[in-house]
Amino acid sequence: MSTIKLSIVRGDAKQGSELVEYEVPFTEGSSLLDSIFWIREHVDPSLSVRYSCKSANACKECMALVDGKAGYLCSIRAKQNTNVTVMPLKGKPWLKDLTVEMD
User: How far apart are the C-alpha atoms of 7 and 20, rounded to whole Å?
Assistant: First the structure.
């Protein structure tokens, strides 16, 4: 089975952060946001990520740092057998995990 490994920042400003690695089944055409949804459904429902495209038909809330570059998790495609580091945006107040305060 092909997989993708996501190293995701977990924690909050009060308790600090740690990088947690998750191995997710790879599905052709899936996004990094789809992989995070898989983690929330099958491993840890407490993983916090901001998004609105699946519920409010809006966009631009799932931005994070992916391997050090800012991008939308819904538009970055997962690539099989890769390791990806996902961190919250810098320069915005950090709330929890991948969630930052939006303007």
Answer: 5
Report the distance separating Cα 73 and Cα 32, nearest Å: 5
Of 59, 32, 62, 68, nearest in space to 50 by CA? 62
Q: Which fold has domain 3-91?
A: Ubiquitin-like (UB roll) (3.10.20)
Give the pLDDT band of residue 102 (cuts 50, 70, 90).
confident
| pTM, two decimal places | 0.91
**Pick from 93, 20, 10, 7: nearest CA to 48:** 10
Q: What is residue 41's predicted lDDT score, i.e. its pLDDT?
A: 97
- Closest to 60 in 3D by CA, of 77, 48, 72, 68: 72
Average pLDDT over residues 71-84: 95
Among candidates 54, 34, 36, 33, which has minimal Cα distance to 46? 36
